[in-house]
Amino acid sequence: MAVWNTGYIVRIRPVGIKMKRRLLLLFLLSVLAVGCSQQKADEPRQLVTVYPRYPEYAAANYIKGLVEVKFDIGADGTVTRIVFLRSEPHNLFRDEVVKAMAKWRFEKNRPCQGVKRQFIFTPSRP
After folding, report:
1. Within a domain: 11
2. In a domain, 116, yes or no
3. CATH code at 41?
4. What is the pLDDT of residue 34?
5. 3-state secondary structure the chain
6. Which residues of 19-49 are buried (b: 16+ CB within 10 A; e: fewer)?
7. Residues near 22 by Cβ (< 8 Å), separated by ≥ 6?
């Protein structure tokens, strides 16, 4: 799958159960709505996907954002050499994207260079 688009909401104040369910539903719908393009034939299959958290500051201020990255996949199936192609607003979501991508795993023994992914962060109003 070549493009993963995600949206997460995290509030600074404690969130009730109903709000957490709404946020989970919003997240799932945003992933499905944006969709994924077909995986290139030479790309290894992604085995483990961890989605980035929505930064508390961005969620509290209803800030939406977009991050586009290009990265390599090592022979061991881990993500290496992440290059940010686009980050809006500048640097707000980058740390969370890096933390999540560090946990991604792909098929072993299929190194690949220049894989691109896009993350879309969309807040919801209470």
Report:
1. no
2. yes
3. 3.30.2420.10
4. 52
5. CCCCCCCCCCCCCCCCHHHHHHHHHHHHHHHHHHCCCCCCCCCCCEEECCCCCCCHHHHHCCCCEEEEEEEEECCCCCEEEEEEEEEECCCCCHHHHHHHHCCCEECCCCCEEEEEEEEEECCCCC
6. eeeebeebbeebbeebeeeeeeeebbebeee
7. 124
pTM of the model: 0.64
Residue 2, domain member (yes or no): no
Residue 34 belongs to some domain of the structure: yes
pLDDT of residue 59: 86
At residue 43, the pLDDT reads 81
Number of structural domains, the chain? Answer: 1
Burial class (CB in 10 A: 0-12, 13-18, 19+), 12: exposed
What is the domain extent for residue 114? 17-121
Spell out the per-residue pLDDT of the chain, length 126, in tens: 444 545 554 433 444 555 566 666 666 656 555 544 445 567 889 999 999 998 888 888 889 999 999 999 999 999 999 999 999 998 899 999 999 999 999 999 999 999 999 999 988 776
